[in-house]
Specification:
Length: 119
């Protein structure tokens, strides 16, 4: 069937002759009939588009990381935070880096305050 659809045919469009595949000719006729409000052609065209879109959707990616990988990454992030901000005064006032963000604390204890204190 694929070989038959890939065969070339000669068509005349706007007074010019050119060669297209039978597949292209079928699609062109289907689109033209659909544009002329032929309901069967419109339904066929919509069904074909759905099939094409469904086949074009990428398969869902499988998560390459195991739960132990997540633990390792979280440990690495915690260690990096401790090493990077060991001398940060606002980290000490928050109660350490592992305590999480101060959601209820509205006092400006971050780097913005230090910049304001320096001026």
């Amino acid at each position: 069937m694929a070989a038959a659809l890939n065969e070339k045919v000669t068509v005349t469009e706007n007074g010019k002759r050119r060669q297209i595949t039978k597949r292209e000719a079928v699609i062109a006729q289907l689109v033209n009939k659909s544009a002329a409000a032929e309901l069967r052609a419109t339904k066929m065209l919509i069904d074909m588009l759905r099939d094409v879109e469904k086949k074009a959707e990428p398969a869902p990616e499988k998560n390459p990381f195991a739960p132990t990988d997540k633990e390792v990454v979280q440990g690495l992030i915690a260690r990096l935070r401790r090493n990077m901000c060991a001398g940060c005064p606002w980290a000490a006032r928050r109660g350490g880096l592992d305590s999480g963000p101060d959601v209820g604390n509205t006092e400006n204890t971050g780097p913005e305050r230090l910049a304001n204190d320096a001026s």
